[in-house]
Specification:
heterodimer; A: mainly alpha; 3 helices; about 35% helix; B: Amidase signature (AS) enzymes; 2 domains; 14 helices
């Protein structure tokens, strides 16, 4: 179960603004999904190693050779508010 | 309808090589067909006459690309309004490899937003309709790619599969869909959903075409350190019998699969009998943890998605929504407004689910546990492959369902992936081939059913070969109404 206050807390963590209606609906839907997910609790998983990655790879290295990166203009092209060769954002304080 | 559209891509490529068909003529036949798309399957289409005379192994053949692959200069949205109008500076490695082999981009196909969905109804640009019945879904998330191949609006297509997003729509649209082994094809330039699961693969008219595309796309890529390619490459399939091969039928994903329709079960039983007739040994087996696949998947995939989708913040590309002036932090308010306006309901749901599962105090109970279930699922497959060369299951528990019928019930939608989720959790390759027709539950005209074959990691050449033999024996030649056979 996840209640409305928890949904609000998680939405803040996820930087998602939810409407009042969305908050209520989300609480119900997430609770239903989590109920299903919690069926995993039936399993005895003591001592089982977690899988983070299915292909056994370690330390994939490449030669440390300098090469050109993307030109600044190209990367700024799709930006919503490019300014003086940078990404402009609203003030974090105001 | 032009008879060019009736050829498989391999057949057309051969005719072009022999000088019996012009590559521009081939491209234009499909560009004109695509222009008449009434399924909502394309988000961007090349114009007739746009062929650039590409040469190479694929002889200028047109190909439809799921809109999750970055294509330099061509709008790439991943089905999301948050990326509306975004033109990537670079092209995904998988697409670049296709182009270097002489393929040409015919169009970008509609999809569930950020590949999250099993019906294509979660697209920010409207649903895709199933060519077999426009009131039904094509499956998802690669619904556009499956629909264009089935409706002859493209000779072939590529898509991505995280929990079934190639195989399930292939099944619902009556085409072939292959999810290769994790690491077979580079993910560079493929917009990330769940990075430990996502894999690119082909959706095609037949198994040979799928092999041809896999052969071109697979390989190590310095831009994706998890890509390793397929050792020894990919051989084109030729097998016509299954003598000496052992097939396992995991009961949890077949006779006991949750929500399996009677019609699907009957087709599957006929398919299994046919596999026996082709000379294979067939026996039932177990994948005891696969019933928990959906649970593990709907923790792991949303958790990874919540991290991957943090990048859509209105700063570097895509949508930005202004913030009210009275906000405590205009920057945080801009993030929150942008994401609220740009993401659809399912994407929000998964970001919330993933953020919750990773949040302090819940991490071990959800994420840690799901990773351990993942280990058990992989061990089950390893045990089964000690006895069998291949496993077979129905691809989807149901035929194509009606638009809107599951839209209000997220869990019912998630169950559409019941038979396809365990393989990506274990990183294994799996293919869906059209295997018959069945009436939907509740009656109505017959719709395609898919048969799923699974092999050990990097066993694609053998998997395609076995699928080729079964495909030949099934002889599936039904086509949607209005589409020539």
């Amino acid at each position: 179960m996840i209640d409305r206050d928890q949904v609000l807390h998680v939405a803040r963590l996820a930087r998602l603004e939810l409407t009042e209606a969305e908050l209520d609906k989300m609480a119900g839907e997430l609770s239903g999904i989590l109920d299903h997910v919690e069926r995993m609790n039936e399993l005895d998983l003591d001592g089982v190693e977690p899988t983070t990655h299915v292909v056994q790879l370690e330390n994939v290295l490449r030669a440390d050779t300098p090469r050109p990166s993307w030109p600044r203009e190209k990367i700024l092209e799709p930006a919503p508010d490019p300014d003086e060769g940078a990404f402009r954002v609203p003030s974090p304080q105001a | 309808m032009s008879d060019v559209l009736e050829l498989t891509a391999a057949q057309a490529i051969e005719r072009i090589s022999k000088g019996e068909l012009g590559s521009d003529e081939y491209f234009d036949a499909y560009a004109e067909a695509a222009a008449g798309d009434e399924l909502g399957a394309y988000l961007w289409k090349a114009s007739p006459g746009a062929s650039n005379g590409a040469t190479g192994e694929l002889n200028g053949a047109p190909i439809a690309i799921k809109d999750i692959f970055c294509t330099a200069g061509i709008a790439t949205t991943a089905g999301s309004r948050i990326l509306e109008g975004y033109r990537p500076p670079y092209t995904a490695t998988a697409v670049r490899r296709l182009m270097e082999a002489g393929a040409q981009v015919l169009g970008k196909t509609n999809m569930d937003e950020f590949a999250m969905g099993s019906s294509n109804e979660n697209s920010g640009y409207g649903p895709v309709r199933n060519p077999w019945d426009p009131e039904r879904v094509p499956g998802g998330s690669s619904g556009g790619s499956a629909a264009v191949v089935a409706a002859r609006l493209a000779p072939w297509a590529i898509g991505t599969d995280t929990g079934g997003s190639i195989r399930q729509p292939a099944s619902l649209c009556g085409v072939v869909g292959l999810k290769p082994t994790y690491g077979a094809i580079s993910r560079y330039g493929m917009i990330a959903f769940a990075s430990s699961l996502d894999q690119c693969g082909p959706l095609t008219r037949d198994v040979t075409d799928a092999a041809l595309l896999l052969r071109v796309m697979e390989g190590r890529d310095p831009c994706d350190s998890t890509s390793v390619g397929i050792d020894g490459g990919v051989e084109l399939p030729s097998r016509t019998d299954l003598t000496g091969l052992r097939f396992g039928v995991p009961r949890e994903l077949a006779s006991e699969a949750e929500g399996i329709e009677d019609g699907v079960r009957e087709v599957f039983e006929r398919n299994v009998a046919l596999i026996r007739e082709l000379g294979a040994e067939v026996d039932e087996c177990e994948l005891p943890h696969s019933a928990h696949g959906i649970s593990a998947y709907y923790v792991l995939a949303p958790a990874e998605a919540s991290a991957n989708l943090a990048r859509y913040d209105g700063v570097r590309y895509g949508l930005r929504e202004g913030a009210p002036h009275d906000a405590e932090s205009a920057l945080v308010a801009m993030y929150e407004h942008t994401r609220a306006a740009g993401f659809g309901p399912e994407v929000k749901r998964r970001i919330m689910l993933g953020t919750y599962a990773l949040s302090s105090g819940y991490y071990d109970a959800y994420y840690g546990r799901a990773q351990r279930v993942r280990t058990k699922i992989a061990e089950d497959f390893a045990t089964a492959f000690g006895r069998f060369d291949y496993l077979v299951t129905p691809t989807s528990p149901t035929v194509a369902f009606e638009l809107g019928s599951r839209a209000e019930n997220p869990l019912a939608m998630y169950m559409a992936d019941y038979c396809t989720v365990p393989m990506p959790l274990a990183g294994l390759p799996a293919i869906s081939i059209p295997s018959g027709l069945a009436e939907p539950e509740g009656g109505g005209p017959e719709l395609p059913v898919g048969l799923q074959l699974v092999s050990p990691a990097f066993g694609e050449s053998g998997l395609l070969d076995a699928a080729h033999a079964i495909e030949g024996a099934i002889g599936f030649d039904a086509t949607p109404a209005g589409v020539a056979g």
